[in-house]
């Protein structure tokens, strides 16, 4: 049996760093007024870092008085001190370090091929410094965007921006955003923001970039622009304009905010807009996807199918900027809150428009229902029978979470019995679809259009409810 004594080993190596008198490397780091010289041992540096193994080879080193001289002006003294501490002792304490220095440590550890340290610092920034990262997206992305190894942090930044992009694109730092980063962002289908806002801030960003100084106060009014002004802006925005989902912009905003810049927009894009609005031809780029936090259903079934059902439109017609935008806020999930009628009633009471989704146990089949008046439960189990009126409610089914061919829709027929509040039912769509604890019951009382040929009872595997706004 082998005994391990890493603790003392770490302390002893740490003392070598602090009190070395046999060092053979002098490393000068930093630049301008922030320069510091560190003493180190080539044998330890080479053993711990493949970067130093190559950099300190006889073909690359510079010596003075038998001392290896090494310069790293792109690493700050604070960051390099942490790196040496890690190399010698395997210890790292980021508690009192600034977020800027931690970001610098990430970049330096990547350059010095300290993979273990790099992985730890990247995860630390995401898990422990997320507030700072979100407040400094431009700085972070400009620092890590072109580093392949930093993909995890890049993805975190882009996903976070897409979830809530408005604070980012309305910030002053957005106007200094690198063009390749902006391209990556606009390319995303998941940018959760109105398309006209994307257009507005793309124009502002483009004006800021032009060498003609279009962003100056004297030239901010486009009624004063000449052809050179427009040509400059067109050249800057040429690669970005095809990424705008113009069919997601309303007619009013197209006229007021897009048409004034018609001369910078390629003619084939305007032709596509006209073909969509007048001939119903689908655009080359779909609308950006409105996210829904569901473990049951795919986004493609929400948008456009279910949202078109809500608007009483053909489910397969693409949405446009003239259509309402919907958000779906998760308020109940059976696997988290309990699959039973009482839990449903407690979480889903009130008169807020709501969508319920049900995954059937032992099957791929999905059922659901939309109620424009919610489920009207006051919570708990009641004995009285209460009826609620709605002309907009409907129930539906999909064969699976990718099915767009065999879906069934059943709209309410008896508006006065659109929602029923009864005994131990979690929800009750006019008896047509009811939740009774872990069971989903489908019946035909004539109050809704049928979605199944016969009455059925299913076991619920998962159930989710969303407030729809």
TrEMBL record:
InterPro entries: BACK (IPR011705), BTB/POZ_dom (IPR000210), BTB_POZ_domain_cont_9 (IPR052407), SKP1/BTB/POZ_sf (IPR011333), TLDc_dom (IPR006571). Residues 300-469 form the TLDc domain. It holds the Pfam family BTB. Gene3D superfamilies: 1.25.40.420, Potassium Channel Kv1.1, Chain A. Residues 23-96 form the BTB domain. It comes from the Eukaryota. One of its GO terms (cellular component) is cytoplasm. PANTHER family: BTB/POZ DOMAIN-CONTAINING PROTEIN 9, BTB_POZ DOMAIN-CONTAINING PROTEIN 9. This is Serine-enriched protein. It comes from Rhizophagus irregularis (strain DAOM 197198w).
